[in-house]
Amino acid sequence: MSIKQAGLSRRDALKLASAAGLAGVAMVYPGRRAFAGLKETTLLVTENRITIDGDSFPAITMGGGVPGPTLYWREGEEVLVHVENRLSEPTSIHWHGLLLEGVMDGAPGFNAYSAIGPGESFTYRIKLRQSGTYWYHSHSGGQEQRGMYGAIVIAPATPDPVKADRDHVLLLSDHTADHPDHILRKLKVSEGYYNRGKRTLSDLSADIDRDGLAAAWKDRRDWGDMRMDPTDLADVTGYRFLVNGKGIADNWTTLFKPGERLRLRIINGSAMSIFDVAIPGLAMIVVAADGQNVLPVKVDEFRIGVGETYDVIVLPTEDRAYTLMAEPIDRSGYARATLAPREGMQGEIPPLRPRTLLTMADMGMHGDHGGMDHGSMDHSTMDHGAMDHSSMDHAAMGHAMPMTPAAQEGPPRGWEQAGTPPGKRALRYADLKAFSRNPEATVPTTEIILRLTGIMERYIWTLNGHKFDHGDPIRVRYGERVRLRFINTTMMAHPMHLHGMFFELENGQTDRMPRKHVVIVPPGKEASVVLTANEPGDWPLHCHLLFHMNAGMMTRFIVDPPATPARS
What we know:
Blueprint: H1 10-20, E1 38-52, E2 55-62, E3 71-74, E4 78-85, E5 94-96, E6 121-127, E7 132-137, E8 149-155, E9 166-175, H2 180-189, H3 201-211, H4 213-226, E10 240-243, E11 252-255, E12 262-268, E13 275-278, E14 284-289, E15 292-299, E16 301-304, E17 309-314, E18 322-328, E19 335-340, E20 446-455, E21 460-463, E22 474-476, E23 481-488, E24 494-498, E25 503-505, E26 515-516, E27 518-521, E28 526-532, E29 537-543, H5 546-550, E30 554-559
Parallel strand pairs: 1-4, 3-8, 9-12, 11-19, 20-23, 22-30
Antiparallel strand pairs: 1-2, 4-6, 5-7, 7-8, 9-10, 12-17, 13-16, 13-18, 14-15, 14-17, 18-19, 20-21, 23-28, 24-27, 24-29, 25-26, 25-28, 29-30
Helix pairs in contact: 3-4
């Protein structure tokens, strides 16, 4: 059912801010050990220039470089991060994936937090209640796109079940000389401004040879009726793709001795790029997703959405170099890193795989759409709430990639098809099993439907047809068990992120649902998550594609404070 939520009054905001300021104390985790130690870090936020493959680019830096310094912390510590804003505009830092007091989350306009003004400073105080791989980034305007991000590694308080001889962070990102404000203006003028891979007459000829004239012509007509293009996989192109701030010529490199176990903490810190990641000739064992340990699963590649993290173990046994390839799904370039036994070695760089073509199924259409005009249509008018979901197979939802490629001629077809080589295995969400069994066995008492909607021609992105703060927020009671159903009515994938809490992804598991803070919802598909609302506050829930969020795809997820016991 769809649930109408109450708005957020000033009085409510003050009550939530007070509650959120207590959200990291024993109230939420009673009986947890006392926090020990105090670790301090200072970050200077400045306008700067960086060099990528010999070319100079404008950037915003923290600590003088892109990315910012990797912050190594330990579960149980209390950390202070002093941020000094040397910019001519307000800034902020969001601690992506961390459980913390609401006012320390770093999202301006939420939990009574305000951006750090020019020339001002702010100290974040965080009591670490978790371990794993996370990251931090600006939550102001387009600053994240300009280089304001960095990695976080939190060591567990108890022995780590994942053993490795070497441990490395690989932070993937995209960078451009174009200012984010200019990019958004171009997208507002024409949503396909950056689509440089539109189909041509030669593509039509190839389609006719493969599918026949009638089928090829119908496919073209269907896409034309919707004023959309099956090659429109990414909103923005022209990026330089980076690993730890290094371009493909800079070639970020780490060393190993044959036979060693390497732990690679891979973070997608880009603004708009979803990557397919592989190390040709070297299998990967996925051991953590979004900072949370999972039962090991051996794969050859995985798709990583913006904001997601995966920890993998690799075991190179040969005395040679290997190339880690990260290809954006529109195949407009690549990022690479090298694993080598000695300095100066380089692995083979494989050719880019063909870009997939979207299909009618990616539009949620499995038959005749009757000539619906999706180009100018507000998708929020679709009444998905009236659909019968009683027989829905939650295990089939949210699969980011297929396990095996489909046998076909020509380029791959369908968003989920990555061109995985025959015989190779790509990670699916269904493969993820939590390392520890889920403590929650309670059936959700509330189901909330979130339609991912938009008006493509105007580049407006919305939730349930409303831009941010133009509709009612979501409000739940403290301790309430909630199911969120994301229904993607658009032709773009959306990595959905909730601050302050973890989702439990309904991926077919029963008591081992993986905990994630970002879930990719493929075009025309659904994904379902559950959570226990045990973090009081006013939390952002949004698409983590930067320009989708900035164009309106965000709402407030309000967890009311726990009820105060009546005095006797």
